[in-house]
Amino acid sequence: MDPDAVTGVQRRVQQAWSTQRWDDWADTCAQDYLFDTGIGYRMNQEETLRWSRAWFFAFPDYTEEVGHVHATRSSVVYELVGRATATGAFVLDGKVLLPATGNPFELSYAKVLELDEWGMVTRDRQYLNQASLLLQLGLG
């Protein structure tokens, strides 16, 4: 794919996810899609949807700003800054991953999307500083 087309996929993924349009987000995923959260969880598409819904439940005011975007013919790397307040518990499959602390946080991270030949996301990896998040939430 042309790097401009890859950047277009990145924008579609980001827009659909950040506005919680889950069907649109799912339409960007390949059948063998995998998400690596950066904190030890690796998930398929269905599991990622549960993760995403739980994220927005715990942090209903969550917003993101996209920084630099670097695209090749089959992948894109981009920088993000997310901001929210931990007003709810982040619970996944009955396990509290982050309690509701009421604290605001700012999370800087990088995301890598790998695409197949049809422009569908096969791998979604993020790299973040978990210790910084925990400290901001008062959990470190």
From TrEMBL:
Q: Which Gene3D superfamilies match?
A: 3.10.450.50
User: What is the recorded name of this protein?
Assistant: Ester cyclase
- This protein's species is Nocardia aurea
What does the record give as the organism's lineage?
A: Bacteria, Bacillati, Actinomycetota, Actinomycetes, Mycobacteriales
